[in-house]
Amino acid sequence: MPIRVATASVNQTPLDWSGNRKRILQAAEEAMKGNPEAILFPELCISGYGCEDAFHMPEVWKRSEESLALLCEKLSGIAGTVPVIVGLPYMHLGLLYNVSAVIHSGHVAALVPKQHLAGDGIHYEPRWFHPFRGGPDQTGEQGIPFGPTIFDTGRLRFIIEICEDSWVDNRPASQHAGSSFDCILSPTASHFAIGKQRLRRQIALETSRAFHCTYISVNLLGNEAGRAIYDGQTLACHTGSLLLESPAFSFQPYTVHHIEFDPEPNRSRRVQTHSFRESISVPPGSMVESATVRLTTEERKEFGFRLPGEDKRSSGLPKTAEEISSAGFRLPDEGKASAGFRLPEDDKNSSPSGGRPSHGQGERGGNAGAAQALRPDTPEEGRLQKRHGDAHLEFLYATTLALFDYLRKSRSRGFAISLSGGADSAACAVLVERMIRYGIAELGLTGFLQAIHREDLLEESAVRGDEASGSDVAGIRLPGERTQTEPLVRQLLFTVYQATAQSSDTTKKAAQRIAEGLGCHHREVSIQSIVEGYVDSYEKAYERNLDWSTDDLVLQNIQAR
């Protein structure tokens, strides 16, 4: 009998506790419209992945647990008995772990810690977290299972592999292989890199083939904290075939997808396949012991986190936001971090037998239903479909999403670029213009301006009523042709050509044509007097004159910087 699992990618901000909770709850509500058996959120979605050394702060652990308790309370009404998997940092026996919490019937059914930490490239997880080693344990006053766990809903048996856990040889799936699971759910925070999606796809395909299961992963979305970009993609494979490789790089605050598959044929294959039986016939001690948690509608054992003050067994902390505030544990207002500064709120997929994807979209103007199956390569309500594939397009989509998030999360009023007439500054200007086009195409004019906190521009006659349909997004504008986005580009992108005595008429005209082509606000100024002032200061300090024949690099750098 077919089973449906929902994934929800969210665009989070580190330490934006109320904002992060809001997006999780909204996405869960959206996901429930597809009647899923489980809902999977990305890694560390409660706190945000990019907290960096703030992970060392006890306040972050406390706020994460408070958010988890609040989510349990809210999700009991939204998801009921459907398990919801969310990520957070969690302190256990004096060690901090990167865990996935499985929320069921308003309580935490179990906590699954990450076993293998990413410590290469831009990742420093071993600096903040402890890798889990060992078998099942319990944590908290309620005796919540903590460690390797198999979850059984009655219709689906699944395990959890957190991001890096799926990329290593001694992975949780190998440890659990003897317990015959149907599905691997993998919450990830895997940063964007050109061509990386091919490796992700390869791992997912081979995992689903080798373990005769369905593999489903969901990634964080957006420029979370200024350093890394996440594509927000859902990837699903079933027995070596691709089920879903969703669109990526959405400007929405969250995206929801549903994956439908039938686990019964794989159960039969796991029994029949001789190689699989041999692979689990290993020497004693090589398998990691795991707990089994049943998540059925009949069994509603009351274990898990409770809101502070919910009963006498709790720590005695207050329950409501007002009580928490009066006790010194203030929950931040919407869009504010605890530190006091303001925060904001191309391949084609196949659908082989045994599974099919369906899609939902975020809160701003997307297709929320997602109960019916849609072709992954079919545009939904005219939305731009951004996918991996071409390296140039990947760069374009990732960078424009990063610029969009940087603009709105920093609450900047636009971008200013020194347009030299060269390729580098021209590329920067084009990326900003493309960001504006993509934002309007996906969110609509009003939604885009609300997202970047520039509702004031709705009152400007220059942009009022220019709701874009997205039809011109992929096109190349001809000279003299005006687009619906051009008035807004003029309000958000400012360029300046800074001339010196060495500047040529060619670069000046090139900068002019670029600015005219993009429709941005452009000015020309002479900085020759400033350059001369720097040169004069240098010559006085070193008691010698600068000359182009001997000091060309110095003079070039003074002019450029």
Task: Characterise this structure.
This protein is an alpha/beta fold. The protein folds into 2 domains: 3-360, Nitrilase/N-carbamoyl-D-aminoacid amidohydrolase; 412-526, no CATH class. It has 14 helices and 21 strands. It has helices at 17-31, 58-78, 125-128, 172-176, 196-210, 264-272, 274-279, 321-326, 391-409, 423-451, 486-492, 505-518, 528-542, 552-560; strands at 3-10, 38-40, 84-92, 95-104, 107-113, 137-139, 144-146, 149-152, 157-160, 183-188, 214-219, 221-223, 229-231, 234-238, 241-245, 254-261, 291-294, 355-360, 415-418, 493-499, 521-526. The strands form 5 sheets. The protein has a 7-stranded mixed β-sheet with strand order 5-4-3-2-1-16-18. Helix 1 (17-31) packs parallel to helix 2 (58-78), helix 9 crosses helix 10 and helix 10 (423-451) runs parallel beside helix 12. It is elongated. The chain starts with a strand and ends with a helix. Mean pLDDT is 82; it is low at 298-304, 308-354, 359-382 and 465-482.
Q: Care to give the gist of this entry?
A:
The protein is built from 14 helices and 21 strands.
